[in-house]
Amino acid sequence: MAKILVTGAAGFIGSHTSDLLLAEGHAVVGVDNFRTGRRENLSAALHSTGFTLHELDVAVPGALAKLVAAEQPDAIIHLAALVSVQESIADPALNFSLNVHASQFVAEAARLHGVNRVVFASSAAIYGDAAERPIRESAEKRPVSPYGAAKLAAEALLLGHGACYGFTVRCQRYFNVFGPRQDPSSPYSGVISIFARCDREGRPVTIYGDGRQTRDFIAVRDVARANLLAATRPGVVSGAANICTGRATSLLDLAGIFAARHAGAAAPVHRPARAGDIVHSLGDPAAAAAELGFTARMGVAEGLAELINGPAVPVLS
Ligand SMILES: NC(=O)c1ccc[n+]([C@@H]2O[C@H](COP(=O)([O-])OP(=O)(O)OC[C@H]3O[C@@H](n4cnc5c(N)ncnc54)[C@H](O)[C@@H]3O)[C@@H](O)[C@H]2O)c1
Q1: In ligand 1, which atom is closest to the CA atom of 60?
Q2: Rounded to whole angstroms, how far apart are CA atoms 31 and 24?
């Protein structure tokens, strides 16, 4: 069993990843500064003897390296970030600090303290509005936001350090992740969590643009499993892979699924498209299948059912 340090452990993806690692018998060192994460997300993990939590800012020079020196993890799953495209546009310097600089600190910590593997939360945003569909990893990278640019830069930093200093780096290019614990309070949260909140409150959903934009929605429990495989599967080598389903859903389709739950549901409200928003996003999942043995298991309908009916209670060892 491995000891795995998870940055951003109190966040949406980080808490599900921590729960799954613990359920599989691994020890988890959680790191978070609660910028957007919440302690409640870790309510199950905090009851596990295999879990420790450290309140720490990964963008502070030396802070993470000190913890890595003390804990000696086998792998780091680096999820802590500024996660909103819109916030990266409003504050590109903060985006650089949290998404590039902090990733450099992760690479440094791995180099200095003999960590075998680093798993990095990259994003489909690195492709920008790529013409290719579905998008393969070899597609041209044309990020259209500071967020996408920073994720691309961080991939290069980590892969270059791994190649030079001899640790494995897996860059996980998540598409649109959804599921329980995604925070709907920000206007820039995942669209499914916002639609789910409107559904609960009986309000119409807001669609930016014409609603024909499509996304490759992947359930967070699948993403957690992809992280587990990237961090622990024997024989995995450095590289980058899309973490996606290979299936496209339009926002109008999504609004239709929610509307079908209530007779007489209000029609969606349309607003102008937002700067930095990508029109179509569909990933090719073949590389993750070949390189990690990962294939998404949950469809949008199944994932929505879990989201609407409440989070599944994880079984922890
Ligand atoms: N949710 C998605 O659809 C999606 C898609 C692509 C990529 N990603 C990436 O996945 C990762 C996790 O995203 P999420 O959706 O779980 O978001 P989240 O906001 O729920 O999680 C991010 C976590 O990082 C923590 N954090 C932020 N800055 C920190 C710092 N300086 N030091 C320590 N902790 C810090 C936050 O408090 C939070 O708990 C991010 O890197 C994000 O860019 C997410």
Answers
A1: 31
A2: 19
What pLDDT score does 212 carry? 92
CA-nearest residue for atom 30, ligand 1, is 57
Which amino acid residue places its CA nearest to atom 32 of ligand 1? 57
Q: Which atom of ligand 1 is closest in space to residue 80's alpha carbon?
A: 24
pLDDT tens-digit readout, 154-186: 999 999 999 999 999 999 999 999 999 987 765
Across 137-146, 201-210, 265-274, 305-314, which has the greatest mean pLDDT? 137-146
Report which residue type is found at 268: P
In contact, 3 and 30? CB cutoff 8 Å? no
- Ligand 1 centroid, distance to 130 Cα (angstroms): 24
Residue closest to 118 by CA, chosen among 227, 243, 220, 25: 227
The rounded Å distance from CA 260 to ligand 1 centre is 32
Which pTM does this prediction carry?
A: 0.93
CA distance 152 to 102: 14
- Catalytic positions are 147
Q: Ligand 1 pocket, 58 CB below 6 A?
A: yes
Give the domains, in start order, of the chain with CATH numbers.
Answer: 3-174+220-246+283-296 (3.40.50.720)
